[in-house]
Amino acid sequence: MNKGGHERKVYRTLEIFCGLLLFIAVGISLGEIVGRVVFHTTYDFIIDLPVWITVWAMLLIGGPLIAENGHVSIDFMANKLHGRARLLLDLFNITATAIYSFAVTIGGFALVRMLYLREAVFPKYIPIPKWIVELCIPLGMGIFTIISIIEFFKIIKKYK
Known about the structure:
Largest sheet: 2 strands, antiparallel
Strand order of the largest sheet: 1-2
Radius of gyration: 20 Å
Helix content: over 70%
Number of strands: 2
Number of helices: 6
Order of helices and strands: HHHHEEHH
Distance between the termini: 24 Å
């Protein structure tokens, strides 16, 4: 397999998984609408479930997007720089990204731990543990952190 092939395969698998999550969220939303219109009934957690699934998908796909330059960025300054100046700016940006995402990952784990220990639930028809819903924060941002660290080393390698 070519260089970076395994990495690309992992990213592609995550993209497909997140796309499937979004498809499921749309299906649940449509089912909720049909249930409400046709049967005049719905459950409160069904309204929230597609939102939670969508947030999971968006947080999990953030890391691969940074690796593929698929994220939104303001690059007018970066496009004008070359050589060492561009290297320093790229390293600064990816370092800031890694530090921020690492901090959010740690905070996310602290949040999930606190919710788990307190046995916090969303008070719905079926009580849903909050830690399960919020687990997407440390998982998604953990993936984001790992990929930003990988990208840091790729930037260094690219400018050698």
